[in-house]
Amino acid sequence: MFVIEIGVLCPYNSKKIMQIHDNILIAECSSYDFKEMLERKKVKSWLKSVSAFANTDGGSLFYGVNDDGVIVGLENSQADADFISEMIKARLDPVPEVQLIPIEHNGRTLLEVKVKAGTLTPYYYYQDGTRTAYIRVGNESVECNSQQLLSLVLKGTHMTWDSLPTQVDANKHSFVILANTFREQTHQEWNDKYLESFGLVTSDGKLTNAGLLFVDNCTVFQSRIFCTRWTGLYKDDAISSIEHRANLVLLLKYGMDFIKNYTMSGWVKMPNYRLNLPDYSDRAIFEGLVNHLIHRDYTVMGGEVHIDIYDDRVELVSPGAMLDGTQIQDRDIYKVPSMRRNPVIADMFTQLDYMEKRGSGLRKMRELTEKLPNFLLGKEPQYQTEAISFYTTFYNLNWGENGRIPVEEVANRVNSTLEKYPVNEESSEEKFGVNAESSEKTFDDLQKSSVKRFGDSPKSSERRFGEVVDKPKNIGKTAQKIIDFVISDPSISAEAMAYKIGISSRAVEKQIAKLRSMGILSREGADFGGYWRIIIKP
Question: Are 208 and 162 a contacting pair, CB within 8 Å?
Fold first, then answer.
């Protein structure tokens, strides 16, 4: 087997991308077309696929194979290869990198036209004075719209929309909101020199597109969010609807404020502390909104980020699908590589400690949700892409098939998990709800003295959680705040908790050590990148 590159003869040593079984060709590449024969009078029918493959992630055309994958062979593969090579040179600009690979099988010859993903995008098909660029959407080659063409132009020049300079003088705008947020988030002083180093201002004092999105008086039309609280489960009547147009820092704040205003949280009284049972993970939704603001396609002038709150879910929607053209619902989110449509915006949010550099937002949203004590399997955040949109859906953990689950029922479910995770009586660190200095009362003792579940009447003759004869001493206000912080954001650091509470990091660490010794709090993973967990698992 050998390869004919356009004008070059060389050994075929490329990665195997197909198999043949019982005269059926099985393509193992993600993008391919089968062609039973070469259409010489309708070259556009297949040259648009070459353009689309070069403009996206590459792909292959197999000639001599019918639509069902059955190998029928070509009468003259060499003549077909010569014609294909000639047409690619004559009708595509720039000329993409293509390999023409004859393949022999059972006396039949088929031809693979292997197109490499191009770096000089867009690759145009032209005829009769017209130039058209194509991209691959699913298994079809479709003509680029204006936004897609702009993205290809930027890709070909190794630029991104957010990095492009404008003609707006930076000295005519202020960054007070950004600077104050930087100080609050990082506990470091702001320096105006950061504007250039972060890519918001050019060396000659002009704002970049990213800079326009962070100035105090942002006027970028597409920098906006639509927030709606719907009645029920569908888009029927709206309880509240509001549009915000502002810089990205304020959009994030306004969006989170709206979500918190229209979501709820229950709680259950444990032996010596209060355990919050929120509808959603605050931090997971925060990560989701950051993700949509960062990765949306800002070349779509008529698009914006939508926040839609229903009784049973919160949906975030933004313009812009996956950069590689794949469908996120078909991917393993733990194996999706970090691809940044707007690297300058992403880096700025990283500098604000709003996201991690490693780009693990999708995974982190799920992990944060799974750490909640009232989490149930099947309630993980879900992701979906359509042709031009990306969707993130968070499910209400306190909502069931028959509506909102009574908080007593949620509390009972959480409490019942104690029985599934018995305590080691020989380890004071594992005695749930018991101070390590007073280790005589085990979990069994607490069960015998019974539990008061949230919503139960204290007048009930049944002994329940909270009606303990020897009631353990409450853990204290600081420790309770730490538990509340962990519920809200399991990834929070001890330093961040100390800053929020207004005490030293050492004092927080002592409280954390106390909670861990009581069997209430545990740490999963490394100090950096790990999570806190309340030791109750649904």
Answer: yes
Query: Which helix (H) or strand (E) covers residue 118, if one does?
Result: none
Query: pLDDT value at position 30?
Result: 62
Task: Name the nearest CA neighbour of 164 among 206, 192, 104.
Answer: 206
Q: Enter the tokens of residue 47.
A: 């040259």
**Domain regions of the chain by residue span:** 2-144, 161-214, 228-400
Nearest to 37 by CA among 6, 85, 79, 80: 80
Give all strands (DSSP E) within 158-279, no chain letters.
165-169, 206-208, 224-230, 238-245, 265-269, 274-278
For the domain bounded by 2-144, which CATH number is listed?
A: 3.30.950.30
**How do residues 316-345 score in pLDDT, each as one tens digit?**
999 988 776 678 888 888 877 777 889 999
Please state which of the ranges 191-205, 264-278, 433-447 shows the lowest mean pLDDT. Answer: 433-447
Comparing 218 with 303, the larger pLDDT belongs to 218
| Cα separation, 10 vs 337, whole angstroms | 33
Rounded to 10 deg, the angle between the 343-351 and 248-261 helix axes is 70
Cα-based distances in Å from 414 to 4, 108, 180, 218: 66, 66, 40, 46
Per-residue pLDDT, 126: 92
For residue 115, give the 3-state DSSP assignment: strand
What percent of the chain has pLDDT above 70?
84
Q: Is 167 left (phi over 0), alpha (psi -120 to 50) or beta?
A: alpha
Q: Where do runs of H (alpha helix) occur along 269-360?
A: 282-295, 343-351
Q: Which two tokens stand for residue 537?
A: 């698992």
Residues 239/245/246/249 CA torsion (nearest 10 deg): 40
* Average pLDDT value for the chain: 82
Q: Is 228-400 in the same CATH topology as 2-144? A: no
Q: What is the DSSP string of 139-163?
A: TEEEE--HHHHHHHHHHHTT--GGG
Q: Amino acid identity, residue 88?
A: I
CA distance 239 to 228: 8
Q: Are 368 and 490 in contact (CB under 8 A)?
A: yes
Class of 228-400 per CATH? alpha beta
SS3 content of the chain, % helix, strand, coil (to 5): 30, 25, 45
pLDDT over threshold 90, residue 463: no
pLDDT of residue 437: 33
pTM attached to this predicted model: 0.70
Integer Cα distance of 424 and 426 in angstroms: 5
Q: What pLDDT shows up at residue 270?
A: 80
Helix (H, G, I), strand (E, B) or coil at 110: strand
Angle, CA 57 vertex, CA 55 and CA 61 arms, to 5°: 85
Q: Which residues pair with 61 in a beta bridge?
A: 33, 113
